[in-house]
Design goal:
Layout (H helix, E strand, L loop, with lengths): L3 H11 L8 H13 L1 H11 L3 H48 L6 H29 L3 H25 L1
Helix pairs in contact: 2-3, 4-5, 5-6
Bound molecules: zinc ion.
Zinc ion (ZN) binds next to helix 1 and helix 3.
Length: 162
């Protein structure tokens, strides 16, 4: 990892030729100059650059982007759980439609378990992959936990209600 002193030495060498440098190198020097008085002074004399206003401009655009990202994540979280609730509702509804007192007690819940395996597990898999692609790791862990709870305990829950 590059340390402050090391970057400082490089900056001292590079600031005299600042205007000839690539954009990436310029950015490294500017970032260092924000924290280093002597480099900041040299940079301002060589490159005609004002560090402070530029830094303020930098801060405003990312804030907007962060807010958008935050909103997107929240909508995404709601959507992911909404889809699961709908599908579980459909599975429970389907179960209630086929529920009959004539069928032996144990076998009735086999159908519910089969619906979970047939419909909920593939759905959960697709949704988890989607969440993973979005790099939303917190939601991914939360969803995985919810899915495991649903797969193991959803039929027990219905059994309690029936
Ligand atoms: Zn420096």
């Amino acid at each position: 990892m590059a340390r402050f002193e090391d970057i400082h030495i490089l900056c001292q060498e590079l600031i005299p030729i600042y205007n000839e440098l690539e954009e990436d190198a310029k950015r490294v020097i500017e970032k260092h100059a924000e924290e280093c008085e002597s480099c900041k002074e040299q940079l301002e004399s060589v490159g005609n650059i004002e560090i402070t206003p530029k830094e303020m401009n930098h801060n405003q655009a990312p804030m907007k982007r962060f807010k958008k990202l935050f909103l997107f994540k929240r909508v995404n979280t709601l959507l992911m759980f909404f889809i699961r609730v709908i599908v579980l509702g459909l599975i429970a509804f389907d179960f209630s439609q086929h529920f009959s007192a004539d069928v032996p007690y144990g076998i009735q819940f086999e159908g519910l378990r089969a619906s979970l395996v047939l419909f909920y597990i593939p759905l959960a898999f697709v949704l988890l992959m989607f969440t993973w692609f979005l790099k939303n790791m917190k939601l991914l862990l939360m969803s995985l936990l919810v899915d495991l709870l649903v797969i193991y305990f959803f039929d027990d829950l219905i059994r309690l209600i029936v």
